[in-house]
Structures are given as structure tokens and as C-alpha cells.
Specification:
This is DUF2723 domain-containing protein. The chain has 464 residues and is mainly alpha-helical. It has 24 helices and no strands. The chain has 2 domains: 359 residues, no CATH class; 75 residues, no CATH class.
Length: 464
């Protein structure tokens, strides 16, 4: 009976944390949508594999929303994220035992960083951070097998939720392994080699599981049928494609793109989506796939382009690391837009809520939140710098140091993958940037001095 009561109490606090994490959606009056939401909802309704993104989030939406309510989708996201944040607090800041203190920590990171604006979106963006949190817990907490299997499942789910997550999480696992070898963390017991290998295997398995999932739903054994177009758009934005066409377009050239060598768009988004772009004027993704793949292979095998590719990738990564603003893509999507049509098809009784949301009345302002987020990032860097490099460094538990390292490597990996291979956008970096302030809050919660009578009172309340 006591165990059941404790389980009920724990779920109550997790429920409150989940509500905090979807507070942006509650404030908006409806789950937040972007221009991509319609595609995900379409795959949730018809189980069609989209050309330009994975089916996985559509399946998540179908399973969690039950074809009844889109509120259930973001609530499931909030509950999953709350459970991971709760567990990271228990592992890396064990002094904070009382659930009210843990809830306050979740509320603080939400207020400082606006993570709720990502958790409340009908988008897979929040799963990048979900995957990194699961990764940190797997590598650093030595969980029992039931919890380990659950975390491995969450890691795999997060990896296949978006093609960028596959590479981001794999790079993070590999980078942790390199740091572990360099700093002798395996020998010192901070990292467990068999667990790292198991985590690496799951991260690699995602590269097979996702194409197999697409094949099972009739979409072919592929990560994305539009991947070559996305890469070409990025090469166009970086100037590499322009240089390639200048080198290879001449009498008897075999590339249709040569006709547009002086009309390449300035950015990848225009290349992909503008009706007058070279891509769309020559038949779209499917029609151009053979030529684009041929160009990509030729660039990959030509060392003359490597300096420019490396320079552009480094520059894009550094730019992406600073793009943590809010509101990217959260514009109104009213009648005659894809999100409007698909919300009406998935949950017709929620269409009035959707139309009356603050987003669709153009009443959302992210200026203050963006400024606060930038300050939170700077304060987090200051706190982590003083805590991990200052005189108190020896008192910080190795596991907490490891958590900061995993989060930091994951944030950089996300910037490298999204900035280097896709677009430099606030949304793509903001989805994980909040992990840095979260790590700083855990450090403060574990090490800021508190009066002994407070600690005794809190510990007694937690046991009760």
C-alpha cells in the first residue's frame, strides 16, 4: 500500500512537471505548429512516408494523440521530458530530494530558456534533447537493466525521430568515447565500456531501423528521398555548388543545373521551397535526384573542394551555436494552409481552438524570452566555468562533470549537423541549447551551500 501511495505521489509530481513543460501550449491556447506540422499530421493520418522527413513523428502523433486530440501529443512529450529531467536531477543532483525542489528546478529552466516552446510544438524537435538526456543517463548513471532497456528504447526513438538526430546522437556517442579514452574515464570508472559499446550499437542501429520502417510502410529502404536535394541546397548556400558549376559547366556539359549557374539562390530555404528555384523549375526532388547524387559524389571525391567545405562547415557551426532565439517558424497558419487542413482532418473538433490560439491571432511576442535566453546561456557558461574550472572543482562529482560534457558535446554536434548540412536557424539550435542552463542549475542545486536545518527539513519531507 505504501509503495502504491509513493508511486501515485511520484506520478502527481511528474504530472505537474509535464504541465510546466507544455505551459507554452497552454498559454497559446493550442499546441504550437510550424509549416512542417501539416506534413507530420498527414503521415499520422494516412501513414504515408513523406519525401523529405521520417515517418516516425507521424507514428508518434498517431499513437499518443489516439486520433482524438493533439493536446495528448504534446502532453506525452511533456511527460517523457519530465521523467528524464526528474531522473537527471536524482542522479546528478542527489541532494535535491524533495519533489517540490525538483519541480522548482524544472520551472526555473522553463522560465529561463523557454524549453516549453519546443516541448509544446507538434514537431519532433524536442526529441533531440530527449535523446541527449537518455544518452547521459545511460553512460553515467549505471542504471539497472529495466531502466537501461527503457533508456535504450528512448534513445532509439529519439534517433529515428528525425534524420538529423541520427547523426547528432551518433557523433555525440563517438565524441564521448574519444574523450573517455583521452581522459582515461573508462579506466577510472566514470564511463563503463560495455555500456558505451551498447549505446553505440543502438545509435548505429537507428541507421537501419529508420529505412526499414520506411520500407515497411511502402516508402522504400531510405532515410529520406529528398536528402540529395537538401544537401544540394546547402552547397548552393555555401557557394560550393557555384564553384563546382564554374569548374564543370562548359561545351557538352551533362548537368541541367549549368543553365542556372548564375541564378542560384542565396539561401538553402529558397533553393528548396521557392517555386522559381532551379530545383522546382527542373521537376523537383525526384526528377533531379540522379543528377544531384552524381554531383554530390563528384564533390565528395574532389579534394579541391575540401578547404571550402571545411571552412563553410566550421563557420556555419559557430553561427548555429549562437542562434538560440525563439519564435522561429511560429507564425499564423490560418485558412488555406497545410497545418490548418491537417489539424481539421486529425482533430476536427479542435479546429476552433486552433484558429483562436494566440499564434493564429498573431499575438505571440518572443522578444523578452529571447533576451532572457541569451542571458541564461551566458550565466550558465559562467556558473559551469567557475564550478568545473575553479578552486571548487575537486568537490564536483565526476558524474556531474560527465553530464556537462555529454550535453556540451551534444550541443556542438547538433550545431555541426544542422548548420553544416542543413540551415542555420534559431529553431534548430534552440531545441538543445537549454540543456546548458539545465546542467548549470543541477550544479547549483548540488553545491550551493544551504543551512543545515533546511537540508534536514527537506530530507525529512522527501522521506515522508
Amino acid at each position: 500500500m505504501l509503495t502504491l501511495r509513493r508511486a501515485g505521489t511520484s506520478f502527481f509530481w511528474l504530472l505537474l512537471a509535464a504541465l510546466v513543460l507544455i505551459s507554452a501550449g497552454l498559454y497559446n491556447g493550442f499546441p504550437l505548429v510550424t509549416s512542417d506540422t501539416g506534413t507530420y499530421l498527414n503521415s499520422a493520418i494516412h501513414f504515408d512516408v513523406p519525401d523529405d522527413r521520417p515517418l516516425t513523428y507521424g507514428l508518434w502523433t498517431a499513437a499518443t494523440g489516439l486520433r482524438k486530440s493533439l493536446w495528448l501529443v504534446i502532453f506525452a512529450q511533456g511527460l517523457l521530458l519530465a521523467a528524464l529531467l526528474w531522473r537527471t536531477t536524482a542522479v546528478f543532483a542527489p541532494r535535491l530530494q524533495h519533489p517540490a525542489g525538483r519541480l522548482a528546478l524544472v520551472a526555473t529552466v522553463t522560465w529561463l530558456t523557454g524549453v516549453a516552446w519546443y516541448c509544446s510544438q507538434l514537431m519532433p524537435d524536442i526529441f533531440t534533447a530527449v535523446g541527449l538526456l537518455a544518452l547521459a543517463l545511460l553512460l553515467l548513471s549505471r542504471p539497472a537493466w529495466p531502466e537501461r532497456l527503457a533508456l535504450l528504447a528512448v534513445l532509439l526513438l529519439a534517433a529515428i525521430m528525425h534524420s538529423s538526430n541520427l547523426l547528432t546522437l551518433l557523433l555525440t556517442v563517438l565524441a564521448v568515447g574519444v574523450v573517455g579514452w583521452w581522459k582515461h574515464l573508462f579506466e577510472r570508472g566514470v564511463l563503463h565500456r560495455p555500456t558505451w559499446l551498447l549505446t553505440l550499437a543502438v545509435a548505429l542501429a537507428g541507421w537501419i531501423v529508420l529505412p526499414a520502417l520506411h520500407a515497411g510502410f511502402g516508402g522504400g529502404f531510405t532515410l529520406s528521398r529528398a536528402s540529395s536535394a537538401f544537401l544540394m541546397a546547402r552547397l548552393s548556400e555555401s557557394g560550393v555548388l557555384e564553384k563546382f558549376l564554374a569548374d564543370n559547366c562548359g561545351p557538352g556539359n551533362q548537368y541541367r543545373l549549368c543553365e542556372f549557374r548564375d541564378q542560384l539562390p542565396n539561401d538553402a530555404i529558397t533553393f528548396m521551397w521557392d517555386a522559381s528555384s532551379p530545383l522546382n523549375r527542373t521537376g523537383g526532388w525526384s526528377a533531379n535526384q540522379p543528377e544531384y547524387q552524381r554531383i554530390l559524389r563528384q564533390i565528395a571525391l574532389s579534394p579541391r573542394y575540401y578547404p571550402l567545405l571545411i571552412s563553410e562547415t566550421v563557420q556555419a557551426t559557430l553561427r548555429q551555436l549562437t542562434h538560440i532565439g525563439h519564435g522561429d517558424g511560429l507564425t499564423p497558419f490560418r485558412e488555406n494552409t497545410n497545418p490548418y487542413w491537417k489539424v481539421g482532418e486529425y482533430a476536427p473538433y479542435e479546429l476552433k481552438e486552433y484558429m483562436s490560439s494566440l499564434q493564429n491571432r498573431d499575438q505571440l511576442d518572443f522578444t523578452t524570452l529571447t533576451e532572457r535566453s541569451y542571458r541564461a546561456q551566458l550565466l550558465a557558461l559562467l556558473v559551469l566555468g567557475l564550478g568545473l574550472l575553479g578552486p571548487a572543482r575537486s568537490r564536483v562529482a565526476p558524474a556531474l562533470v560527465g553530464f556537462v560534457v555529454v550535453c556540451g558535446l551534444g550541443i556542438v554536434a547538433n550545431a555541426l549537423v544542422t548548420g553544416g548540412l542543413a540551415n542555420v536557424l534559431d529553431r534548430l539550435q534552440g531545441r538543445v541549447a537549454w540543456l546548458l542552463p539545465w546542467a548549470a542549475l543541477l550544479l547549483l542545486a548540488q553545491h550551493v551551500p544551504l543551512p543545515a536545518r533546511w537540508l534536514g527539513s527537506l530530507a525529512g519531507s522527501a522521506r515522508a
